[in-house]
Amino acid sequence: MSRGRGRPAGGTGLTLDHILQAGLELLDEGGEQGLSMRALAFRLGVTPMSLYNHVPDRAGLLRLLSGRVYAQVLDGLEEAETSKAELRAILLRYHQAVGRHPHLTLAIFSDQQAFAGVTAKITQRLQTLLADSVGEPELWLGILVDHAHGSALAVSMTPDELTPPLYEQALDRLLRVMKG
Predict the structure, then answer these.
(1) CA–CA separation, 40 vs 18, rounded Å?
(2) pLDDT tens by residue, the chain, 180 residues
(3) For residues 144, 149, 150 and 151, what is the CA-based torsion angle, rounded to 10 degrees?
(4) Are 134 and 124 a contacting pair, CB within 8 Å?
(5) What pTM value is reported for the model?
(6) What is the helix (H) or strand (E) element at residue 173, kind and residue range?
C-alpha cells in the first residue's frame, strides 16, 4: 500500500484532532497494546514521522488524549457549596470518564510520563480539597481515586453486573465516614 507523507486519505491535511480521534479509537478497540505510533499512522494513512509534527511522542499523545477525555471533570465546579460536594462532583465525573475510555486510564498507569496536564490537575484539586477538609488527606486521596478507578474499570468490563449507581452509593458512604 502506498501511503502519503503527512496527509490522510482524501487529500485533507493531517490535524491534531484527526490524530486524537484515531488514537482514542485505537485505544478503545485494542487496549493499550493497540495504540502505537505505527498503528496510528497506518490508521490515518500517513507515515509515522508525520505524527511527530503534532505530538512529541506516545506519552505526549496520551497526555493530549487524557486532556480531551477528562477535560470536563473540573469544569463549572466553582458553584459547589462545600468541599465534600466538590469532591463528590469531581469523583463522579472522573468515574464516568474512566468508564467511557478505560484503556486510556490503563495506558496512563503504565507510562508515568503520560500523567500530566488534566489528570495531574484533577489530582492536585482533590489533594487541596482533602487537605482542607479531612485528617490523613493522602490516605483518603488513595482510597477515593482507587475506588473511582476500580469501579469504573470493573463497570466498563462487565456493564451488566455492576451499575454506576453502586459507585455513587459507595462514594456517598465513603464521604460520610471521612473524618475532618
Answers:
(1) 10
(2) 444 454 444 445 899 999 999 999 999 999 989 999 999 999 999 999 999 999 999 999 999 999 999 999 998 887 778 888 999 999 999 999 999 999 999 999 888 888 888 888 999 999 999 998 888 999 999 999 999 999 998 888 775 655 567 899 999 999 998 865
(3) 90
(4) no
(5) 0.84
(6) helix 164-177
> Which DSSP letter does residue 3 get?
-
What does the block give as the cell for 1? 500500500
Question: What is the grid cell recorded at 95?
Answer: 468515574
Q: Can you tell me the distance from the alpha carbon of 177 to that of 167, in angstroms, rounded to the nearest whole number? A: 15
User: What is the full DSSP assignment across 105-170?
Assistant: HHHHHH-GGG--THHHHHHHHHHHHHHHH-SSHHHHHHHHHHHHHHHHHHHHH-TTTS-HHHHHHH
